[in-house]
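Researcher: Go.
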Amino acid sequence: MLPTCVPSSSSDMDEASFPGPGFDAIHVGQQLPPLELPAITRTTLAVYAGASGDHNPNHIDSDAARAAGHEDVFAHGMLVMAYLGRLLTNWVPQERIRKIDVRFMSVTHVRDCLVCTGEVIEKCDGNILVVHLKVHDQDGDVKVAGKAWLSM
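Model: Structure:
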């Protein structure tokens, strides 16, 4: 089980290099700007498979996915996780992400349109923010949910 707040590690980034609001200006309940993504396509899956080295047939071969009991190919879980990383790095520099802990909740199908969201749920000593993360599709089906700890 993760602690609610985790200690920050030192960062050589100064406040001037952080383009967003300072720690004191951020409040519990604040929403991160959502990341809305285009529909997942077979091309998206093929490109991700090549970039990640994950060539699991369930993600790129319709016949193999059907033989395994699926309706069709489906997105790699880590592709969806990467979208959450993009949500965070659109808001803070990568160096400020201390930890991400998520659960994969449901399969992301071809043609699903994903939206990544985040909400500040806690401010901790040491200028740490805890952010609730979620990815859902066009029908509201949650694909991934969890938390991130950011040093500010």
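Model: The chain has a mean pLDDT of 88.
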